[in-house]
Design a protein that fits this description.
By secondary structure, this protein is of the alpha+beta class. The chain has a domain of 80 residues: 2-Layer Sandwich (Alpha-Beta Plaits), CATH 3.30.70.20. The protein contains five helices and seven strands. The strands form three sheets. It has a three-stranded antiparallel beta sheet with strand order 3-6-7. The chain has a two-stranded antiparallel ribbon with strand order 1-2. Strands 4-5 form a two-stranded antiparallel sheet. Strand 1 and strand 2 form a beta hairpin. The structure holds iron/sulfur cluster (2 copies). The site of one iron/sulfur cluster (SF4) has 15 residues, from helix 3.
Length: 156
């Protein structure tokens, strides 16, 4: 902790945190560059329960991880968290509910938590529906534009 003459240096603490974050960002950029994967979610947490994990007979999460953040080491699935982009592909392919737990924070501060494949599927379905609605809305005329385009339809 930053301390000057026995008192806590608040400014130092704030700038230290900023430096740590930018260091972390740079490290992630360098690690992710060879994978070609975009670092969409920089803030998050992920954990794997080695007691419920099916282990060596499964390894599905390792096969699907796009950044090779997951690997088999020390007799269990291990993770290099700096390589994790919190995409959820590992949870989607894990057969054991709550074995992998992930939390990610969006740029607007929204926190999303996943630990079951069905949660990822529901999320994808909802996101696709929202995209479809936006697409339809973008080609549909708004009521005021409709009257401008077809003035004869306006009631007198
Ligand atoms: S969420 Fe899972 S699959 Fe996605 S990058 Fe992280 S460890 Fe890999
Ligand atoms: S997919 Fe799930 S059960 Fe299979 S190795 Fe990975 S964490 Fe374990």
């Amino acid at each position: 902790m930053s301390q000057k003459n026995g008192s806590v240096d608040i400014f130092g603490l704030l700038t230290e945190d900023t430096n740590v974050n930018s260091e972390k960002k740079k490290r992630r950029e360098a690690l992710l560059a060879p994978t070609g994967v975009k670092d969409v979610f920089q803030d998050g947490k992920i954990s794997i329960n080695s007691y419920t994990c099916l282990g060596v007979q499964c390894k599905e999460c390792i096969k699907v991880c796009p950044t090779t953040a997951l690997y088999w080491g020390g007799g269990k699935v291990a993770i290099i968290e700096d390589l994790c982009v919190y995409c959820g592909a590992c949870i989607l392919n894990c057969q054991v509910d709550d074995c992998i737990k992930m939390e990610r924070t969006r740029k607007d501060g929204r926190v999303e938590k996943f630990s079951k494949s069905k949660e990822i599927l529901l999320f994808q379905k909802k996101a696709n529906t929202n995209k479809r609605v936006q697409r339809v809305q973008s080609v549909m005329l708004k009521p005021q534009d409709y009257y401008t385009k077809y003035p004869k339809t306006r009631q007198k």
